[in-house]
Design a protein that fits this description.
The protein is mainly beta. Helices cover 5% and strands 35% of the residues. It contains five helices and 36 strands.
Amino acid sequence: MKKNTMATAIVAGLAGVAGIANISTAVNLNPDGVGQVLIYPYYTVNGGNTTVMSVVNTTSAGKAVKVRFLDARNSREVLDFNLYLSEYDVWTAGLFSLADSGPGNIVTTDTSCTVPGIESGIFLLPTLADGRRYFPFRTSAFTDFSAAGLNTASPTRTRDGYVEIIEMGSIPTNSTFGSALTHSNGRPGSCAFLEAAWLGSGSPGANGIWVQDPFFDLEPPSGGLFGGAAIVDVADGTYLSYNAEAIDGFSASIQHTAPGSIFPNLASVNSTTPGNVTSYVFDRGRLITSNWTTAGGGGFRAVSALFMREAVFNEYELDTNLGAGTEWVVTFPTRKFHVTSSTGFTAPFTSGFSGCERVSSRIYDREERTFALFDFSPGAGQQQVCWEANPLWFSRTPLNSASATPILGAPGAAGSVSSLWTGIPTYLEVFGIIQRTFTNGWFWLGFYDENAINGQGIPTPLTRAPLVETNPGAGNTPDSYYGLPAVGFWALRVVNVNQGAGLQASYAGAYPHRASRACFKGAFGTAPCD
C-alpha cells in the first residue's frame, strides 16, 4: 500500500470490501450537490491566492472520509489524510503558500478530527507565527514527466490541482468511536483516541483497533455530504466561490483505510451486485442506465460516464471598461485512470502523459457574430489541452507564454516546462494582423466534433473512440459515450477603474460550466442510449 509523507508514522490499514449495505445503489451525479463523493475542480496558491474549502455532514451519523489533494499536471497525489466528522458537522481548511516558489500547505482551526491531527494532535508539525499548526504538501520526486521541474522534488506541482473527498463509511453516534467524534463545548470527545486507533506499539497484538479491524464501529456509506471552495486573493479583494460536484450511490460497502492509502479512489466504486456497478446519467429529460464491470479496478469507467461531455460551454467577459478578465477551469477527474504512462491510454483519451488532447471550439459575441479559431496559445498548430486540471486564459491580444494568468495565477512556461494554462484568443488573426476582436459572449469547447477545423482552417473532424459500457448484458448493444469526462467553471474578475479612495475595487464570481452529452447505441449519431 502506497503511503505519503503525512502517513510516515501511521501503520497502513487493511484495504478491502466489507459490510455490504442491504440497499440497491446506482452511481450518479447528484443534481442537488449532496452525495458520498465530492470533487472540487481546482485549488491554487499561485498568484497571491489562497484556497479555502469546506465539507458538511448533513446526517445524524458520523463519517469516516478520505481527503485527497492531486496536482493539476497529471493528478499525482500531493497529500491525503482521514477526516472524521461528527453528526451534522462542518470541517473547514485553508490552502496557502509561505513563498512564491514554496509548496502548498494546509491549515485549519476547525476542531473536527483528522488523522494525523492538523489542528492538534500527537505528531509534531510546523507552526505559523500565531501558533497554528500546518502541514506542507508532499514534494516527492515524480516519474510521470521527463521535464526538469516536473520530475523532481520541486514544490511546483503542489501549488495547484484539485481535491477528492470520499466517504469511507458511517459511524453510529452511539458507538465507541461515535462518542469520540461527538462535540462537547466545541470540541470532539477525543481525536487522540482516533489517532491511536491507527497506531501500533510494534509488539504483536498491540496495534490500534483500526489497524486490526478497519471496519470496527463502521457501517456502509450513507451519503449526505456537500461542500464548496473559494479562491481568495486578499490583496486584490476577490473571492471566487464554487460548489463541489457530488457523486451519490458510489459505494455499498465500507472502504475504511489508513491515512496515506491510495484507496479508496474513484475506481473503488461498487454496488450490492458483485463485479458490477450501474450508472445513472441524466440527459435532456432521459435517464440513461449503463452497467460496468468492476473487476481489475475497472469501475472508474462508471464514474467517467457521469462526467462525459460532448462539449462544455460558458460565457466570457473581457470588457476593458469593466476591467474584466476571464479564465476557465476544465478538469478531467478520471483521466488518471485512463492515462497510465507516457504512451499508455484507454478511450476516450487519445494520448499518454507526453501528449495532449485535441479539442475544438466555437466562439460567439453577444450579438450572434462568430468566427473560426484556428489555434490556441502557446501555438501548437491545433486546439488542444494537456493537463488534468486546465486553466484556460481568455485574451483579446496575443499572450506571452512565460506569463502567469492574472486571476488564478496559473504558471507560464519556464525552461523546459510548458505553461499550465491554455490561451483562448477572442480575436481573429490572419497574416499576423488582428482582423476582429470579441469583448464578451460565449464559448463552446468541444471534445467530439464532426465539424471541427484544424490549425490551417481546413475541415478536420474531431473524433475519438467512445467510452463503451463494459457489462451491457447478453444480447444488448452497449452504450457508447462520446467526448471526455470534464467538469469546471468560469472565473470572472471585474475591476472598478473609477472607484473613489477607500472603496472596494475588485469583484469576482465563479459559474459552473454547462454541457451537452452524446450517448448512442453504437456509432455516433445512431440510436440514443436509454
